[in-house]
Amino acid sequence: MLSIMGLTAKYGKYTSIKEVNIEVIKGEIVVLLGANGAGKSTTFKTISGLLKPAAGEIIFNDEQIGGKQPDKIVELGIVQCAEDRKLFPQMSVQQNLMMGAYVHRRNKGQIKQSLKEVNELFPILYDKREDAAGSLSGGQQQMLAIGRALMAKPKLMLLDEPSIGLAPLIVEQMFKSIEHINREGTTILLAEQNANAALSIADKGYVYENGKIVVHGSSAELFSNEEVRKAYIGA
Question: Per the database record, which ranges form the ABC transporter domain (predicted)?
Fold first, then answer.
């Protein structure tokens, strides 16, 4: 579904990621591991069209998308759920969800079905549909951010640090929700520092250090890699 080959991206003269290669097969959950500043979010921004590649290719369903406008990439089926959620805090939960459906604004039936699915996945969002998004707890805001992304009916969802700042019990619930979304047909590319939780649901992973991928393999291979365990799993 997604092939990234030799991807390099810069902020001005600073090279943030260099010669990154990633492959995501339809139906997979793939995790990007690494510390803050290692290059995971830059990779997402480049896939999403928020940052133009300095070199390399991004192929999505046999189409070159590197450098395309972000709205065109959303229309193709790639939707990003940002690390800091990027909600509209003064708008209601329902209004935030409807913003995610903008790409399908002419298909009222599709929007109604998507809203039903999101409310079934996260019932608390229905209960709080009239509340301001900014009044929600951190876990509820993350649910809303994921729900808004789902309203666009993505083929590939980019989830950037969905567990950050959340209590352990909420993190567990969040990863169960991600597994459910995947089972329902959405391919997931997940950037996470919580390696233990991420690898427990992922098919494979890539480990970033200083803007480069230094290790990649199946989840089982990364779990059994002593250096990965010491650096990211704490065992």
Answer: 2-235
Question: How far apart, in whole angstroms, are the C-alpha atoms of residue 3 and residue 170?
Answer: 32
Q: What is the phi/psi pair of residue 2, to 5°?
A: -130, 125
What mean pLDDT is predicted for residues 127-135? 95
**Per-domain boundaries in the chain:** 1-77+154-235, 85-153
For the domain with range 1-77+154-235, which CATH number is right: 3.30.450.30, 3.40.640.10, 3.40.50.2000, 3.40.50.300? 3.40.50.300
* The pLDDT of residue 164: 86
* Angle of the 138-150 helix axis to the 108-121 helix axis, nearest 10: 150
- To the question of pTM greater than 0.90 for the whole model, the response is yes
Cβ within 8 Å of residue 157, ≥6 positions away: 79, 80, 81, 149, 150, 181, 186, 187, 188, 189
* Token pair 């690494």: residue: 34
Assess whether pLDDT exceeds 80 at residue 88. Answer: yes
Helix spans in the chain (H): 40-48, 70-76, 93-100, 108-121, 123-127, 138-150, 168-183, 195-201, 219-224, 226-228
* Res. 235: pLDDT tops 60: no
- The answer to whether the CB of 4 falls within 8 A of the CB of 56 is yes
For the segment 8-15, the average pLDDT, to the nearest whole number, is 94
Token pair for residue 60?
Answer: 């999505």
Distance CA 188, CA 210 (A): 23
